[in-house]
Structure of Branched-chain amino acid transport system substrate-binding protein:
Amino acid sequence: MNSKFLHKLCMLAAMLTTAPAFAQDVVKIGILNDQSGPFASYQGIGSVVAAKMAVEDYGGKAAGKPVEVVAADHQNKTDIGIGIARRWYENESVDAIFDIPNSSIALAVAGMSAEKNKVFVGSGAGTVLLTGEKCTPNTVHWTYDTYAYGRGLGKAIVQQGGKKWFFITADYAFGHDLEKQAAEAVKASGGEVLGSVRHPLGTADYASFLLQAQASGANVVGFANAGDDTITSMKQAAEFGLTRDHKLVGLILGMNGLPALGLKFAQGAQIMNPFYWDLNDGTRAFAKRFTERIPSKAYPNDMQAGVYASVIHYLKAVDKAGSAKDGKAVVAAMKEMPTDDPLFGKGYIRKDGRKIHPLYLLQVKAPEESTSAWDLLKVVATIKGEDAFRAESEGQCPLSKQ
């Protein structure tokens, strides 16, 4: 075989080897969340639908390249979640990961995103560590956090006379953090914490925990859990008769859980949220389109709306940076540009990665006030983002000092 022919064969082999890479020259977004467990109806396929809607609304391209959305179920297991993130980053050319309910997984993926110079945008994640000691230049925390929800509700309920608290708390990073934030707000507002108990994720029987709450002398039971755990524990509390002499407070009582809980049990409960589908024409239009596309026909919640809004802003930043490949540069562009979308309105992203927007104190309607299946909440008060989220100077994020 002569050298010229061998050279041509080598060139052809190289072209065939690299052809799939050219075919995959896209901006790739991964939605990583719980699609089969207690958070599946709160993020799950709804977050995937929201991301795809955002890509379509943006025009399907960023930095001149088509945008692709992939999704996976982390099953609420850190090893599975980080394994998926590693595979996506190392083998499947994913540029950014969004959502991630489950703070332990979110913290692990945030660290890996910084290591691989990718982007992590948390919508379902709650822990304030993402914008505190564990902040990275590759992370944005979009929708909410345990400080805003825990502190806001703790303060509001004490002001309404709920001064003696007992917490029923999910036994992992998110639950611990949520209880801590609410307890500190209760004490700072003149209330007291009489006790707490922790339960595993996915607990089915809360009887022993509720009996401890009942015996504590508290007049408020704070549920520092999320998803189906919140609905199951609050429903059993109502069945136990705790609503007669206790105020039940779901610190992360998501809208999607209210139909299962029922307005009869949930009426009067207050929640903090940066989004509700019936706030204005923009949120109503989004909700109508969303419910037509999701198999359950459910209306969107704040975390699904957060995926939509954050994907839009991410794609703007990719255009500004000129490429999705340098995650740190893309996040820097996200911080440089003010945020503006029909779901959260105008806002901005701080140096520590915290997205700032208003929050609303919402109250669950009484059955006779509701006019349709998803007419569940009414706005009681609006809280400025600067007042709702932890001050940047208190977060101990090294980026804030630069």
Summary: The mean pLDDT is 91.
